[in-house]
Specification:
The complex is a heterodimer. Chain A is an alpha+beta fold. In chain A, 41% of the residues lie in helices and 25% in strands. The radius of gyration of chain A is 23 Å and the shape is elongated. The chains are: A alpha+beta, B alpha+beta.
Chain lengths: 264, 117
């Protein structure tokens, strides 16, 4: 799920002194929606079909393009690139490798691809997302904690209130997860009533997050609590030598034992 | 056959020659947002024809995208004051697809009283 998998390449370029009419013809010819604007080997902008629609055909590209284009590296995750586009309200990003523009990626392409790993009920990403992030951090030796969150007695809630109410509770719980997590956290609905958070927070901050997640909350008159199993580099021996699957297993077993202890 | 004998074609060429004024711009160009020539092109044109003599100022305005202005004017008057006057006057005339050119001369009149010895 790296940007390089979704970018279109090679990148077609145009110099900033060409006319908008020329660029329009060139885009039609190449059947592309944008061109990188390059003067003397340096990329200075990007010109899109939307830019062309709002510019007089006699203008030069320098007056129609979006200057100082935002770029991402080929190694960035697709969801980070999508978040960048959403933050800047843009439809395209230049993709670079070692400061060279090697491709263009569009918001539409990323959205279509990423929708496949989004949980339609909660809008959270599903397990493949967290797995890629976890494996990425393990490969790089980045410090993180994996929190496996299992809602307590969710089956009984479904039986007591019905599955539609259960779904509403999952949606609201997911919203709560979004609200209490930050840019240092990665959240997914792992399965059913189980969620996984990978956090890169400092230890104290991570503890506060775990405490907040363990606190019962009332959603639609139902009291919801969760057992949070944690796998972290200081608690798990040979943390970085383990597979992500092993860490998930460990955290989920911890969460199960917490659940059982709370019943004793 | 008779028609072909009487048939002939002529072209008339006319030519007017006058001195090319350097610079060809006047003191100001006011560039509309949808004008056929944009600020960057105007800037490049001015730089090619009259290097270091003009400055392009981009604006946040409903109809006007930028103003090209002679540097000497900016040295005589405050930029904000000058732009405010230009916008007030041009706003009544310009549409967003036009480029207006303008002469702008600043003259200073001074009257002083001095004591006679």
């Amino acid at each position: 799920m790296k940007v390089s998998e979704f970018m279109s390449s090679p990148v077609h370029t145009v110099s900033s002194d060409r006319s908008v009419q020329y660029v329009s013809d060139r885009m039609n010819e190449l059947k592309v929606g944008s061109l990188a604007v390059s003067d003397y080997g340096t990329t200075i902008g990007i010109v899109t079909s939307r830019d062309l629609r709002s510019s007089h055909p006699n203008r030069i590209v320098a007056d129609a393009m979006t200057p100082n284009p935002i770029s991402v590296s080929t190694e960035q995750f697709a969801w980070d690139a999508l978040a960048t586009m959403e933050r800047h309200c843009i439809e395209r990003l230049l993709v670079t490798r070692e400061n060279q523009v090697v491709g263009i990626v569009t918001r539409e392409t990323l959205q279509i691809k990423l929708n496949r790993i989004v949980d339609p009920l909660t809008g959270l990403y599903r397990a493949p997302y967290i797995q890629q992030i976890g494996e990425h951090f393990l490969n790089r030796g980045t410090s993180f904690q994996l929190l496996f969150i299992d809602l307590n007695n969710f089956g009984e809630i479904n039986k007591m209130y019905g599955h539609p109410v259960g779904d509403d509770i999952l949606i609201e719980y997911s919203n709560r997860l979004r609200a209490i997590t930050t840019g240092q956290d990665y959240v997914c609905r792992y399965a059913g009533d189980e969620f996984v958070v990978i956090t890169c927070r400092e230890d104290n901050e991570a503890k506060r997050l775990i405490e907040a997640l363990s606190e019962p909350v009332v959603i639609q008159t139902a009291k919801i609590s969760a057992a949070v199993g944690v796998a972290s580099d200081y608690a798990v021996p040979d943390f970085y030598a383990r597979t992500f699957r092993e860490l998930i297993s460990r955290a989920s077993l911890l969460s199960t034992s917490l659940k059982q202890n709370s019943l004793v | 056959m008779q028609d072909k004998i009487n048939y002939f074609r002529k072209a008339t060429l006319s030519m007017k020659i006058s001195e090319f004024e350097v610079p060809p711009m006047q003191d100001l160009l006011i560039i509309g947002k949808k004008a056929p020539i944009g600020p960057e092109a105007v800037k490049r044109m001015a730089q090619a024809l009259s290097p270091e003599q003009f400055t392009i100022i981009k604006l946040e305005h409903a109809k006007i995208e930028a103003v090209l202005i002679r540097n000497s004017l900016l040295q005589m008057l405050d930029e904000h004051l000058l732009i405010q006057i230009i916008l007030e006057e041009a706003d009544r005339l310009i549409s967003d697809n036009m480029v207006l050119r303008s002469e702008l001369k600043i003259s200073l009149s001074v009257q002083r009283e001095v004591e006679l010895q």
